[in-house]
Each structure stands twice: as structure tokens, then as C-alpha cells.
Amino acid sequence: MSERSIIRKGDRTSHGGTVAEGHPTSMLLGREIALVGHKVTCPKCKGAFPILADPGRNHTFMGQDTAVEGMRTACGAVLIASQMVARIGLAQGLSDPAPMKTAQSDTLCQECLEAAARNAATTVARG
What we know:
This protein is mainly β and 127 residues long. The protein is built from 1 helix and 11 strands. It has one domain: Tumour Suppressor Smad4 (Sandwich). The chain is globular.
């Protein structure tokens, strides 16, 4: 079974950003535990973006999925854990998710894609 470390407020991302939120009453090694939906600042994409859900994680807290290393934000940044003590395994029968591939669309401009990411949009309407 593959395991991933739990993400906490203050942990970093692959874009050089920082996890800005955590659950105020759930501490791990002195810092708040981050959950899906909590915001992450991103200097590369110039904004704050939510942590996205990742299928196969089998731990929830207060009805929300716990954020773990390898999850992504709405801008595409990957979460990087700063601790290796508390880890969560994948759900039984599932494997690590394949890396996300981002295709460049000929019909959507970069500005529209960035606006959608800033607003945590899951779809972008065309035309």
C-alpha cells in the first residue's frame, strides 16, 4: 500500500507557494492540518487556489478529505509535505493516480485558462 504524508498549514508547493489554511482545531506537530478546499497561495500563478480532491485517499476529517502530499491545487501546483511522521495510505484496491497531463487548447486563450484557475472553475465554457 502506498502512503502519503499529511499536508499542514505552511507546507510548500511545486510552484513555490504556501498552504495558507488549515483546520483550526486539528493540529499535527504544532501546525493545522490542511483539508481539500483549503487555500494555497501561488506566486507563479499570482493568486490563492483551493486544494483539489484526489480519488483514492481514504481519510476524512469533519466531512472533508485530508490533504496529502502529491495532491494538486486548482492552479496545478503539487503539494509538498514538510513532515514524514503522519501518513495516509491509499484506499484498498487503488493505485497511485497517474500524473495529470495538461493539454494546450487551440480554442482557449491563456488568459481564460488563468481566470478559470483563479476562480477554481472545474469547466470552462466555450463560445
